[in-house]
Structure to design on (609 residues):
C-alpha cells in the first residue's frame, strides 16, 4: 500500500513532464463529472419539500375538517393525526429515515398506530445442504404480503388487543396468517416458510421486531417515531391511527404515505424500467467515454 | 459518505465502491486482465445483489477494455481478423449467456450458479498459473536461457474443417476454434460479469497458438464488444445495470490502473504471475468457504412482484 502511495505521489509530482497540463485538464473533466453527480444528488435532496398535505380520510366517526380549536365541542374530531413529512423521498443520500407521527385525541383512551407497506407477491426460498454445498432447494410464494409492517401503541399491545380490538388491529403474526400461499403445501411447511419470510424481513428492518412506543403528553397529545430502513420498497404506504377506549375502537384516522425515489434516482430507475434499450446504450456510452478519457490520462503520465 | 444506488435499491459507502474499482484497476494495470473476477465477488460480498453486481460490472469492463485497447490499437497489436471471428462466437455466447442468466434468475438458482462457476474457474486457473510460475521460476534458476520450444504444436483440433488464414497471428487454423472460444468467453462474461481476459489470454496463447504480442490487444478488442453486448442485453431483459455503481467502479479503475502498471514495471514477470495466482486462489477459497459454511439464515427472498 505504501508503495502504491509513493507511486501516486510520483505521478502527481511536476517531474512527470510536459503532458502534465493536459493531464490536469482531463483529470479536471473527470472531477467535474463526479461533482455533477454529487450536485444532482444534493439537488434531488432539496426537491423533497413537503407539498400540500392530503386531508386525512376518515376511518372512524370523527370529522377532521373542523379545526381542533374547541376540543370540548361535540362536532370536534376525537382523533387528529399528522406526519412530519408528507412522503418518504428516496434521494441519492437516502439511508433510511425516521418520520414523526403526531396528533391529538380526546381523553380518555389509548392510541395504536399501524403502518403497512403496499402488498405484493413475495417468494421465499430455502437453502439446504446438497453434497456439502448450500443451495436453494425449496421455494414458496405468498400473495398479499405487506412490504413493511410496524405497530406502535401507547400501552402494551397485547393488553389492548386482548380486549377486543383484534378484528381491526392486527399484530404482525395475525396479519401474516392471512397472506395467501400461491401453491399449497402441508401447513407445517407453510408455517416454516412464513417464519422464513418474517426472519428475512426482520433482518432488513422491514418488520421491526420491537413494538413502537406512542408517547402521550398532557393526556391528549401523542407522538410516535416511524422507522424506515434504507432498503425500503416503493409504493403507497398506509398509516393508520386508532383511538381505543375500553378495548373498543372509537375513532380511526388513515392517511396514505407515498414512498418513492425522487430526482436523479427516480429518473434513472424509470429509464431502466421503461427504456431498457436506451438506458443500456447510455450506460455503454458513459463507460466508453470515461474509459477513453481515463486511458488518455494514464498514457500522459 | 453513503450513496443510494437506484437499481440495486440500497445505500452503499461511496469509498468502498471506489476502492473496489481501484483494486480492479490496479489488477488491470498490473496483470493486463480486467479485474472483474475480483470486483464482482467483492461486490456480492459487500451486499450488492449478485444480479446487479454482474450486470454493472460488465458495464465497467467496457471502460477498462477501451482504455487498454487505445494503446494496443495504436501499436498495431490487434489482429482484426481474429478479433472479428472471436467476436462472432462472443456475441452468440453472450446473448445465450444472458438468456441463461434470466432463466436461472427465474428459477432462483442464479446466486448459486455464479458462486459455483467462480469457484471452478478461479481455482483451476489459479492452480494452473501457480504451477506454471513455480516451474518457470525454478527452471530459470537452474538454466537461465531455457530450452526453446516449437513455434506451436499441432493437436487434433488443427484438423477441423473451415480453415482460415490469420496473417497477423501467423496462423492457419479452423475458424471453429476461435468461434468456440469466443462463445465460451461470451457465456462467462454474461453470467459472471467478467471480461474473461484471464481465460481468453491463456487460451489464445496455448490453445490457438497466437503470438504473445497480439494477444492482449486482440482479446481487448473482443472483450469490449462482448461486454457492451452483455450490458445492453442485461439492461433490456433484466434491468439490472446500475449506472451509478458502474460510474464509481470506473472512476476507481481510472485511478487504480496507472498505479498497477507502475508496480508491474518494477516486478519480474514470474513474481507477478505468482502473485496473481495466489490472489485468484484466495478469492476462489473465500467463495468456496461461503458455499460450504452454514448460512446465517436458510431463507432468502426472491424478486418482489407487485401484481396489478
Amino acid at each position: 500500500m505504501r508503495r502504491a502511495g509513493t507511486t501516486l505521489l510520483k505521478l502527481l509530482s511536476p517531474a512527470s513532464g510536459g503532458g502534465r497540463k493536459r493531464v490536469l485538464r482531463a483529470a479536471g473533466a473527470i472531477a467535474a463529472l463526479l461533482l455533477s453527480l454529487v450536485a444532482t444528488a444534493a439537488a434531488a435532496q432539496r426537491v423533497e419539500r413537503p407539498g400540500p398535505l392530503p386531508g386525512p380520510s376518515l376511518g372512524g366517526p370523527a370529522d377532521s375538517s373542523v379545526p381542533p380549536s374547541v376540543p370540548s365541542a361535540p362536532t370536534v374530531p376525537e382523533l387528529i393525526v399528522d406526519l412530519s413529512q408528507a412522503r418518504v423521498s428516496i434521494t441519492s443520500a437516502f439511508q433510511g429515515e425516521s418520520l414523526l407521527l403526531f396528533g391529538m385525541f380526546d381523553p380518555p383512551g389509548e392510541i395504536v398506530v399501524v403502518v403497512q407497506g403496499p402488498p405484493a407477491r413475495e417468494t421465499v426460498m430455502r437453502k439446504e445442504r446438497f453434497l456439502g454445498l448450500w443451495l436453494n432447494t425449496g421455494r414458496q410464494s405468498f400473495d398479499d404480503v405487506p412490504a413493511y409492517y410496524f405497530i406502535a401503541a401507547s400501552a402494551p399491545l397485547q393488553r389492548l388487543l386482548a380486549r377486543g380490538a383484534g378484528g381491526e388491529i392486527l399484530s404482525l403474526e395475525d396479519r401474516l396468517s392471512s397472506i395467501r400461499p400461491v401453491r399449497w403445501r402441508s401447513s407445517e411447511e407453510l408455517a416454516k416458510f412464513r417464519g422464513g419470510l418474517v426472519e428475512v424481513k426482520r433482518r432488513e428492518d422491514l418488520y421491526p421486531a420491537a413494538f413502537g412506543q406512542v408517547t402521550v403528553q398532557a393526556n391528549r397529545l401523542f407522538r410516535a417515531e416511524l422507522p424506515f430502513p434504507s432498503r425500503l420498497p416503493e409504493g403507497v404506504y398506509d398509516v393508520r391511527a386508532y383511538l381505543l377506549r375500553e378495548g373498543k375502537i372509537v375513532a380511526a384516522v388513515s392517511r396514505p404515505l407515498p414512498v418513492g425515489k425522487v430526482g436523479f434516482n427516480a429518473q434513472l430507475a424509470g429509464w431502466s424500467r421503461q427504456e431498457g434499450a436506451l438506458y443500456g446504450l447510455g450506460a455503454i456510452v458513459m463507460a466508453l467515454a470515461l474509459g477513453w478519457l481515463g486511458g488518455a490520462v494514464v498514457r500522459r503520465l | 459518505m453513503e450513496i443510494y444506488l437506484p437499481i440495486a435499491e440500497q445505500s452503499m459507502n461511496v469509498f468502498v465502491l471506489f476502492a473496489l474499482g481501484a483494486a480492479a484497476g490496479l489488477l488491470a494495470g498490473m496483470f493486463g486482465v480486467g479485474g472483474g473476477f475480483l470486483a464482482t465477488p467483492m461486490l456480492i460480498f459487500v451486499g450488492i445483489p449478485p444480479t446487479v453486481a454482474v450486470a454493472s460490472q460488465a458495464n465497467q469492463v467496457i471502460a477498462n477494455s477501451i482504455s487498454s485497447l487505445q494503446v494496443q490499437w495504436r501499436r498495431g497489436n490487434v489482429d482484426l481478423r481474429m478479433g472479428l471471428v472471436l467476436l462472432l462466437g462472443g456475441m452468440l455466447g453472450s446473448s445465450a449467456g444472458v438468456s441463461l442468466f434470466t432463466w436461472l434468475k427465474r428459477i432462483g438458482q442464479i446466486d448459486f450458479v455464479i458462486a459455483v462457476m467462480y469457484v471452478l474457474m478461479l481455482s483451476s486457473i489459479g492452480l494452473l498459473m501457480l504451477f506454471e510460475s513455480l516451474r518457470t521460476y525454478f527452471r530459470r534458476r537452474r538454466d537461465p536461457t531455457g530450452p526453446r520450444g516449437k513455434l506451436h504444436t499441432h493437436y487434433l483440433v488443427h484438423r477441423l474443417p473451415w480453415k482460415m488464414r490469420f496473417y497477423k497471428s501467423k496462423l492457419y487454423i479452423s475458424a471453429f476454434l476461435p468461434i468456440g472460444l469466443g462463445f465460451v468467453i461470451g457465456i462467462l462474461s454474461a453470467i459472471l460479469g467478467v471480461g474473461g481476459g484471464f481465460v481468453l489470454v491463456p487460451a489464445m496463447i496455448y490453445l490457438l497458438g497466437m503470438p504473445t504480442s497480439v494477444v492482449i490487444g486482440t482479446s481487448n478488442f473482443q472483450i469490449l464488444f462482448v461486454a457492451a453486448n452483455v450490458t445492453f442485453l442485461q439492461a433490456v431483459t433484466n434491468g439490472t445495470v446500475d449506472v451509478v455503481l458502474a460510474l464509481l467502479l470506473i472512476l476507481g479503475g481510472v485511478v487504480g490502473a496507472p498505479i498497477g502498471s507502475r508496480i508491474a514495471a518494477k516486478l519480474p514477470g514470474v513474481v507477478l504471475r505468482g502473485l496473481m495466482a495466489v490472489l485468484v486462489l484466495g478469492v476462489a477459497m473465500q467463495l468456496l468457504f461461503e458455499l460450504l459454511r452454514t448460512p446465517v439464515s436458510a431463507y432468502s427472498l426472491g424478486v418482489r412482484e407487485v401484481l396489478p
Observations:
- Helices of chain A lie at 2-12, 20-47, 157-162, 172-177, 187-203, 263-274, 276-300.
